[in-house]
Amino acid sequence: MLRRFRPSRAKPQASATQYDESYYLASQRQLIWRKFRRHRLAMFSSLVILFLYSMAIFAEFYSTNDFQKRHVKYAKAPPHTLHFVDEVGNFHFSPFIYEMKQELDMNTLQRNYTEDTSKRYHLRFFTEGEPYKLLGLFETNIHLMGVDDPAVYFPFGTDEFGRDVYSRTMHAARITLSIGFVGVIVSFCLGCLIGGISGYFGGTVDLVVQRVIEFIISIPQIPLWMALSAALPSEWSSTQDYFSITVVLAVLTWPPLARAVRGKLLELREADFVMAARISNMGDMEIIVKHLLPSFASFLIVVLSLAVPGMILAETALSFLQIGIRPPAVSWGVLLQDAQNIRSLSQSPWLLIPGLFVIATVLSFNFLGDGLRDAADPYKQ
Amino acid sequence: MKSYVFQRLVYMIFLLWLVSIVTFVVIQLPPGDYLSTYISRLEQAGQDLSDEEVENLRRQYGLDLPLFPRYIKWFGQVLQGNFGFSYDWQKPVKDLIGERLAFTFTIAILSAIFTYSVAIPIGIYSATHQYSIGDYLVSLLGFFGLAIPNFMLALVMLYIAWKSYGLNLTGLISTEYMDAPWSMAKIGDLLLHLPIPIIVVGTAGTAGMIRVLRGTLLDELNKQYVITARSKGVGEVKMLFKYPVRVALNPIVSGFAWLFPSLISAGTITAYVLGLPTAGPMLLRSLITQDTFLTATLLMFITILTVIGTTVSDILLVVVDPRIRMERAAT
Questions:
Q1: The model's pTM
Q2: DSSP alpha helix (H) spans, A9-134
Q3: How high is the ipTM of this complex?
Q4: Residues from chain A contacting residue B283 (CB–CB below 8 Å)
Q5: Mean pLDDT of B51-68
Q6: β strands within chain A, DSSP E
Q7: Chain A interface disruption, residue of B105, B163, B169, B265, most A CBs within 10 A
């Protein structure tokens, strides 16, 4: 993102000498890839995004416990601290945790947890635990990490029912991250269709569509989202909830996309290279496939990657207000519900950890979008 | 100029009418109505209603009419300033919403002022000090402002105020002042509570605005007229504020049109987390209890505020930028 702001006049001299023969021989795809790779923040962000989505896909593998199981003995337990040095000062190569002891403070009626340094459990990687089906296909019981029985490991602590916040966060990634994706695709289809119609027909149709878009943009989104999602019947199953929330999110996000698609269509139709292709007797189909689609596709990818974070934030907000995804289904917004007031927050601040994942996702998509925007037009200096 | 303002106002009235239809349709979407919620609550409490009583209630609340006549009836009443009756609060809607809407509007306006007074100096600074440490720091903060969900920022700030100063800053006024008459102490208390909502609501917009201002100002600074001004010996500060900054502020002024809806939006969730007496939490509750008239009125007024804000910013833009004035006058 920082490179983007370098003044445009300083670059051409520097880069003209820097480019060797291969620059002129490289295909457009190679140029895009080269330019993207130079955007280090975007490269890093795409790795983060890959990691986050791997969390969503292999949630069971990453989790240390069953995410719905209530460990009554450890309600509102703080995150375990990983130690390397034990109580007598010996260094251990593999990290370990101490078992937690619960004490009830009779004055405040709060549970306090202390570490029982006599019971040490080493963290094991690729260890056996609860059986599950990887990708819903292969039976296995290997987890990324865990500790030996009878201890349980809570990297992010537990909620008021003693459920493991870490494992819940991993599972919640499924809904939150996929809603971002699916929602953007639905809103994108709507946007492309309506924007395309508007740009193609022009005239009155265009005028009406543009006014409608202006109208929807000028309505504050969240109150309307609230109204729409509150309209969903409460007896619906999680799956129905999931799809209806996706549709609700898409209904209000297509207008900016449609506007962008229309603008780009109109711009491309008049572009010099299209005119040049037409003069050199290229067929309509060939122009569309060889010239319009490549310029359009890269543009769309950029718009899409920048639309995902808004979708994720919206889902999180709705679920947080208890009108989005409903428990027992978990999304990051649902998890954040537990940290809704100052009392629960001051007792267990670790309940905000799922929020950090939201921030990481939104930041990464923004950086990725920035990098893609630069790379989408590899000839621009 | 006058005709343009007139044209905008007519368009605004048309939008407001559209708003009334959309809100009414949206709130009719849920299956069931307030009455069914009310009846099931009575039944849970052990009271049984006869069919006749239900029918009477239905007629009393106008729920026996089909959708369209109900809208006409409602809209006719709205035009007369009668917004219906809130079943849930057992009060006329008119008496409920006034103060809440005033608070909503105040917070949105204060947040807009906050956004502008933070974003403009920072945007100018980071454009003129490109690639300085300050610039990087501000860009980084801006990205965080963009990425952190509003409600989470509100929670974190509440938590910090609670942990480090022992202050419970939920609400707008502490409970001990709630019913007290206005005094210096009460105003002081209000001033202590105001910053968190304003900062939280303002932050998301601030980040975007800094980015836009920085980008446009950088473009402007590379233009010929800046070099001309410099070569003629105009002082750097005078040159900066006389020419490029004025040009770069245009997108910021027009940005108010999208900033304002987002401030109202952000305010809704923030108010819920902070327990502010604004329209947001009331809307959420009325949605859940299906308090039709209250929902419709709130949704409508929130949107009306936004449409007015957008129209004002459009007119303002024409006043500020002579180029747009010429262009629009021609059409």
A1: 0.81
A2: 11-18, 21-25, 28-38, 40-57, 59-62
A3: 0.78
A4: 223, 226-227
A5: 71
A6: 83-85, 91-105, 110-122, 124-134, 138-146
A7: B265
